[in-house]
Amino acid sequence: MARLHTFTDDALSDLDAVGVAEAIAGGELSALEVVEAAIERIERVDGTLNAVALRMYDQARDLAGHKRTGAFAGVPTLIKDNVDLVGLPTQHGTDAYVATNARRTGDFAHMFLKTGVVPVAKSQLSEYGFSGAAEHPRLGAVRSPWDTSRVAGASSAGSAALVAAGAVPLAHGNDGGGSIRIPASVNGLVGLKPSRDRVAQDAYFRLMPIRLVADGVLTRTVRDTAAFLREAELIKPASGLRPIGDIGGPSRRRLRIAVCTTADGRSASPEVADLTLKTARQLEELGHRVEEVEAPVPPGIGVDFITYWSLLANLVIRSGGLHGSTWDATRLDNLTIGLAHYSTRSVRRLPGAVRRLQQARALAEDFHQTYDVVLTPTVSAETPEVGHLDPTLDFEEILDRLMAWVSFTPWQNITGLPAVSLPLQTTSRGLPQGMMFGAGMGCEGLLLGLSYELEEAFGFARIQDA
Fold first, then answer.
1. pLDDT tens column, 351-371
2. Which of 26, 288, 355, 452 is at 20 to 30 A from 92, Cα to Cα?
């Protein structure tokens, strides 16, 4: 197992984002020192991790040379290459066209920049974010720093790999089927998918018929995730959702927690199921009431999700001409093309699938009238090796492997409810295995309080200590 990280005694040290911001504000470090440390760290590992889509080093140095305001003033970060930054291309992880420079900064990045962060690069993703592993036919896979023979997870993989490796303390991700939580699980990070409409996002995602995608961050500490959500709420308050506020530590509230190790007819591997039940016992040790139950997921919801997900691939192909003369659909990978064909074959099923997906919110909210939180594994098995989800494989094989591995995460995308993956467990091979906690709409504060409690009681594995 080949581990790779950049933690060392430089300006970044092993500080989290809040710690870096405090050091800059206190005059112990300069923003430029920290940015240069991030650049050096990225260059040290990216030849192996393959996590960067676009370097922005000169722009970052320029930003760092001017006084920044905000809670994360001067903190280096990454922005996933499926949101717009003015003057830079947005490639969406595909070879199907050559992106032109964005005319404006998208709504998410506009909000994120107001927190004071300094983007040093855009991070690599799977093609249009469709796959649970960022493997690219030409560029190769984004690899996990915990074991570079294995993938770094779903489409926010580039951001996750570099946060886990210590190159930056936090980075942007977005989650349409688990793409914050899956790479958090794989890379030993905190990854919280917020409630639908909690965080600002680009029109590309807002205009989806069912808004599956939520934007957020990948971090190494709960307090960084809590600070991001606090600042996002101050910059753009979410209407119709209960405020989160400033969650600074564990909650004293004892919760009713359901635990599930199967979803939509698919079970976690024996090892992952055992680790999930171990987490349940740890929750009981802390005084929470835990009950093993059947997942609140209707049979066949996974097929409904893929039916709708495939529609998005079909729309990508049908609108490809908007990219001009550089568009070439033959350069799309087998997963994108296969999903589009799946959509065409499933067109008669689509209205019923959409109706059932829309009805799922009420089922989930009813479940959370009984249980405050539901615990599941984030992914159903240990992190696969590079090639397991290779997008050049036969489509049916990719789809079956994908659905088997990521059967737990899509539920919160369908319902819009929040969920967080925490790096609480480790497999027998020494790989991180995230545990996922879901809650009712707008209950990020509850999840953060529980997350702080678990972090304090049991700790998170750190790559620099492994």
1. 999 999 999 999 999 999 999
2. 355
Residue 26 region by backbone torsions, left for phi larger than 0, else alpha for psi between -120 and 50, else beta: alpha
Question: DSSP code of 326?
Answer: G
Task: Kindly calculate the radius of gyration of the chain based on its CA atoms and give it in whole angstroms.
Answer: 20
Read off the pLDDT of residues 285-343 as tens digits, 9 standing for 90 and up: 999 999 999 888 888 999 999 999 999 999 988 988 788 899 999 999 999 999 999 99
In the residue annotation, 319 being an active-site residue is answered as no
Token pair recorded at residue 88 = 């830079």
Side by side, the strands of the sheet bearing 170-175 are 170-175, 214-219, 190-193, 419-426, 432-439, 373-377, 256-259, 289-292
Check 126, 156, 179, 451 and give the catalytic one. Answer: 179
Query: Position 95: which residue type?
Result: D
Per the listing, tokens 């979803």 go with 263
Sequence-distant (≥ 6) Cβ neighbours of residue 251 within 8 angstroms: 446, 449, 450, 452, 453
The question of whether 114 is a catalytic residue gets the answer no
- Are the CB atoms for 197 and 415 separated by under 8 Å? no
DSSP string covering 354-414, please? HHHHHHHHHHHHHHHHH-SEEEEESSSSSPPBTTTT-TTS-HHHHHHHHHHHSSSTHHHHH
What CATH class is the domain 19-458?
A: alpha beta
Q: Residue 13 and residue 22: Cα distance in Å, rounded?
A: 13
C-alpha closest to that of 181 among 207, 211, 157, 201? 157
Helix (H, G, I), strand (E, B) or coil at 149: strand
Active site (annotated) includes residue 179:
yes
374 C-beta neighbours (distance < 10 Å), count: 25
**Burial (CB count within 10 angstroms: exposed 0-12, middle 13-18, buried 19+), residue 286:** middle
C-alpha distance from residue 222 to each of 91, 219, 247 (Å) = 31, 7, 10
Pick the catalytic residue from 126, 131, 144, 155: 155
The tokens of 126 are what?
Answer: 């799977």
CA distance 302 to 91: 28
Q: Tokens 């999903």 correspond to what residue? A: 339
Backbone angles phi, psi at 290, to 5 degrees: -120, 135
Q: What is the pTM of this model?
A: 0.97
